[in-house]
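User: Is it possible to get a 3D structure for a protein together with its bound compound? The compound here is magnesium ion. I've pasted both below.
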Amino acid sequence: ESNFLYEIMGKADSCPAPTKPNLNWHLINHSKADHDLRHLIVDLSRACKYISYAIQTTEAGLAGTKNEFGEDQLALDVLADNLIREFLCESGLVCCYISEEQPDIVELDPEGQYSVVFDPLDGSSLVDANFAIGSIFGIYKDGNVIGATPREQVAAMYVLYGPRTLLVVSLGNGKGVHEFILNDVGEFVLLRDHLGIGDDAKNYSPGNLRAITTNPGYKKAIDSWQEEEKTLRYSGCMVADIHHILSKGQGVFSNIGGGEGSKYPDGKLRHVFECGPFAFLAEEAGGAASDGTMAILDKEITSVDQRTQIIIGSKNDVESVASLVS
Ligand code: AHM
Ligand code: MG
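Assistant: Yes, that's possible. Here is the predicted structure of the complex:
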């Protein structure tokens, strides 16, 4: 391993590879990230350290609750949104952002070269149950996210706040998907590099299951997963459920729409800040992400709150479910 690290560093012996490569080191030496992009990713990771700490130290997660001094407490998702905004402002690198917590695009620094899309705290309804939750980010060059496709992202990343806090990031272009763990001194250090997704899923993770009563194709997909005796792994947090796939190297996650009159005709998940970043990571890891008819990465972003169906994970399973639900 140390030879590999020396090779990618290409530096003199006087500057040995670190025993524990951290996120910043890895972005410089492995991903060869552009200076500003690296700073932006590191700034986002810093915001997530505060979010991670807030989750561990806040007693309640719900809006309108009071702390032990009788002061109003912010809901954790609002707190996470504020924290990320602060770090984006500090970076000076971001012209605008789209957040699940904001109804419209938010303009920041007109000189900024990047746009960031994010769900500050995905699965926040699970906070009180003490389930894992996460933050999702996609980064675009320039300000025109509406009208773009998720393939135009220059990086995607998520942070999973579970028993341990993990960060998974990719700059695409064959540079791979890499996993870091938050250590006791507050540094994200490399845990596993080059996460991959195999072609066949043993695990399945079916979201918006309420749709099977009105969508016979989705019902067929679920039936076939059960007949194939796949293993169910579903927590209700997209970050945790898709991390399970990247972590185990196989699996399929779906969130499919219901028929006419149903609650979520296009599925529950948002294209820009939930599906887009995960599609970028899944394809980079050798998996696939489809809305049933086309690759999520090629689907145009038409509005901030656009929803899309998604089937993501092991290629062969994504394909077979897509043929049933499209
Ligand atoms: P949220 O962003 O309001 O937390 O909702 C998104 C979450 C995803 O993490 C998860 O995959 C989905 O909602 C769960 O939906 P369902 O209740 O249909 O299983
Ligand atoms: Mg969400």
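The longest helix spans residues 35-57. The longest strand covers residues 114-122.
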